[in-house]
Design goal:
Helix content is about 70%, strand content about 5%. The protein is mainly alpha-helical and about 130 residues long. It has a two-stranded antiparallel ribbon with strand order 1-2. Strand 1 and strand 2 form a beta hairpin. The longest helix has 23 residues. It starts with a helix and ends with a helix. The relative contact order is 0.12.
């Protein structure tokens, strides 16, 4: 995945917001606590790169390539957050820490972590 961490964050945010309804620039600005001009520039760049499109009514929609990146980052975030909570980290800290590392893990390392976590969960469910 050769997309910047910043772009990954925008795409992930759009994915999460889209689960609640249509997404507009103001929704992203509010969620990420960035200014509207900053969001506008980022959305324009992501659109130019083919990761999203803006519908006629102003809603922001992920293109398949943007959707794939967003889902990958979101899966990493949720999985890492679950693992951190499981080992005793408070939820807010677990989520913040997951956010810090979700972008830098290699696919190989994340796959290994996910596999170990699934084994551990399965083990816990048999006890």
């Amino acid at each position: 995945m050769n997309v910047t961490e910043s772009s990954q964050m925008y795409l992930e945010t759009i994915l999460v917001l889209s689960k609640k309804g249509p997404v507009r620039s103001i929704d992203i600005a509010n969620e990420m606590e960035f200014s509207r001009p900053t969001i506008s520039i980022a959305i324009h760049n992501l659109q130019k790169e083919g990761y999203l499109k803006i519908a006629e009514d102003g809603t922001i929609l992920l293109e398949p390539s943007g959707q794939e990146i967003a889902e990958t980052i979101y899966e990493r975030h949720t999985t890492l957050t679950e693992i951190f909570k499981l080992i005793g980290v408070k939820e807010e800290i677990a989520s913040d820490d997951a956010c810090k590392i979700e972008h830098d893990l290699s696919p190989e390392t994340f796959t290994a972590i996910k596999k170990a976590y699934k084994k551990y969960k399965k083990y816990l469910n048999t006890k």
